């Protein structure tokens, strides 16, 4: 066990930050007059607020933890997914691939667009897999965030659940009351606080640990594989290919990213947000990755223990001095709160807009709609609290997030591409695609937990399972659509 | 080693991106928030039937 530099001064900084965020989040609730304002800020979001909000949302404590773990386990090569995501964001932002027709359609969620092409059942099924994958993904956020805060501040591990619960309640209060408006305003504050913390700690690492020590540590532990993912024995082409599929799909369909696109005041603004945020995704992986590499360079394996996820917070606990520690914890809380609030709202919007759609035979009043949206966000908070407490995480965190995300990313990206660009795509192909896309990663997760099947799952590994999900989902779309086209054609000939 | 230089340059670019974009986005973002709230205030204050249509 090592000590920490967290002092009363740091606690005061964190307290002031929390008060400021809560006040800002609650102040804008009076502007929420209808469901559209609650879910997508009345489509009034402009470029810079969009960039700040997207950057803050896509960087939580959980992000810092898994990217730092990547840095600790793979060296600089662990930042490869960030480079791939940045390239995908830039490509989509420049070309408008899929997202332009999506934003032009004026829908609130992706499944709503699917209804136009594939019918209401596919819309409903899409909503279910999006929420299933999204909530499983988000389920580990709380515990991981709590572990970071406890390790860095030197708190008692027995208080982890209490800290997690209080943090979630604080976030839920302003998200339930202010919806997307509160999320955007608090995201903005959180982006600024988070950036200051990230810059200070990274500059300190460069000055006090030094680039030479970081590079030497990576070379000593991983050789050239620490700099090049293709020659790293634990990564290789399956890792790169899986991340290519995963990150392109996430850029196109990840609900929190898409909700920024749909909240933008027009399509051009949405594309500018994509382009403006693209390089952030390199920073998102590389900066905490450097923190993880600094842990590799300075901590003995005995201090890190068996869980490499804890290497970075253990390093920061002794490396960051008092005063700066408060800024760091405030920055990480900022990162976590912005992520939690956006995620709760994003999945809530799909539950309300798409899963509950069949139950709204007649349009609901704005008052009733707001009530249900707020209730759904609150219920998601309750689910997260319980799921986050009991799910035992197996393997590395980034891979878990990748596998759970694939439950919907594989099928939704295939459906979106087919919906926008393939005339022959139909509901048979869409249904087959959703089924296959959810079955493969879900089976992998379940079989990984069973003693009898775990060795086989370890042999297959998450990368091949993930690649199979994307390839088979695309094949299911093509085969299913062509089968229906063929049957319709035969029916016409008989007539 | 090329790998070292690549990651060194990328790390510096990340720090530079954060240092510049944070300040720029912080200033411009405040103006975006003001304009967004102003438009929503106007929309909420519009008389019934006279509200601006929902954006698509």
Characterization of the model:
The complex is a heterodimer of chains A (495) and B (56). Chain A has 495 residues and is mainly alpha-helical. Chain A is 79% helix and 0% strand. Chain A is globular. The termini of chain A are far apart. Helix content of chain B is 79%, strand content 0%. The interface between A and B is large, with 47 and 36 residues.
Secondary structure elements and pairings:
The complex is a heterodimer of chains A (495) and B (56).
Chain A: H1 8-27, H2 35-40, H3 47-57, H4 61-74, H5 80-95, H6 99-104, H7 110-118, H8 120-138, H9 141-153, H10 160-208, H11 211-222, H12 236-253, H13 255-263, H14 267-277, H15 280-298, H16 301-304, H17 311-319, H18 324-355, H19 366-390, H20 397-421, H21 427-449, H22 454-494
Chain B: H1 2-45
Overall average residue pLDDT of chain B? 80
Element string of chain B (H = helix, E = strand) = H
Greatest interface and its participating residue counts:
A-B, 47 and 36 residues
Percentage of residues in helical conformation of chain B: over 70%
Shape of chain B: rod-shaped
Main beta-sheet annotation of chain B: none
How would you describe the oligomerization state of the chains in this entry?
A: heterodimer
Q: Rough shape of chain A?
A: globular
Keywords:
heterodimer, A: 495 residues, mainly alpha, 79% helix, B: 56 residues, 1 helix, 0% strand, disordered C terminus
Gist?
Chain A is mainly alpha-helical and 495 residues long.
